[in-house]
Amino acid sequence: MLIGLVRDSVMQCFCHSCRAPVLPAGWEQRTAQRRSAPVKKPIGKPRTKQPKKVKFITTEIRCQEMSKGGLAYEVILAEPVGVPAPRRADSPEKTPSVEEIQEKLKAAEERRRSLEASKMAAIAQKMAKIEEASRIRSEQTNNFICTTKEALDAKMDSHEEKREAYISELRARLKDHLEGVEKTRLSLEQQTAEVYKAIEEKMNTAADKRDENIKKMLERLREHEEQVQKVRDGNRERFQQLESAIQEKLQQAAERRLQLEAEQKEKLRNHNNKLAEVRSVISAKMEEITKDIEVKLTTAEQNREKEIQKKLDFVKKEERRAELVRQNKNARAETEPAPTSG
């Protein structure tokens, strides 16, 4: 409570002239709730022991005005006071008598005997239980051995029976397989003999057929050679006819070529004659045109010279006229008196 008063006085001035912040209502309850909240204990014990808290008892509070509108509180605490642990009161010592000691010894002996008897009884009970357990265990083991032996004997008998049955079945299968193999071998030998016979027969028949085929092929070859000879003879006759026809056509073509060459030469001669005539006509026309052009040029030159002469004469006249005008101006200037400044 005292700490709360000091905090309130520090946070708010008594004069109310300064603008110190005012805490909201209910802040004490909130701080108390925060302090009373359970704190989680750390897992595991700390390595070092924490020192014991020492209680301080306030003895005096002083208030002093340090500045205008401000107060300072000084709390003086007393020296730490340790709380001594309470001690048990010392009991008065008693001197036991001989009778009490003997009674205590007798009671201790009786307790020891009763403990030994109870221990022996417990040991005997445990031994009886152990013997009973060993007997039961031996009986169980004997029963288990007997049952397992009977089961093994039964399994061995059944296994022997199954093995003999399996062996007999395998022998029967092997016998059947051997019989089948023998049958297949005999059938294969018979088939091979038949195949050999068929091959020999086919070879014989093939030889006969081969001879017949050879004879037929020879006859066909003879017929083919005769046909080829006939075709060759016919082709020779055709080639001769074609050669004669080609020779005739070549002669006709040569004659026609010569005739065409003569015609072309005649046409070229006529063309050259025409060209010579045209050239002579053109040259005559060119001479006439050149003569006309020369005449026109000479006349134009004469006319140009005449025009130039006329212009020169006109220029000379103009110069003479200008000279006369100048002379007249000079004469007038000389005859007229100079104006006096007045």
Topology of this structure?
Layout: H1 2-11, H2 27-36, E1 58-67, E2 70-77, H3 98-335
Antiparallel strand pairs: 1-2
Entry keywords:
single chain, 342 residues, 3 helices, flat, Stathmin-4
Any overview of this molecule?
By secondary structure, the protein is mainly alpha-helical. It has a domain at 1-26 and 59-77. Helix content is 75%, strand content 5%. It has three helices and two strands. It has helices at 2-11, 27-36, 98-335; strands at residues 58-67, 70-77. It has a two-stranded antiparallel ribbon with strand order 1-2. A hairpin with a 2-residue loop joins β1 (58-67) and β2 (70-77). The longest helix is centred in the middle third of the chain and has 238 residues, at 98-335. The protein is flat. The two termini are 136 Å apart. The mean pLDDT is 79. It comes from Papilio xuthus (Asian swallowtail butterfly).
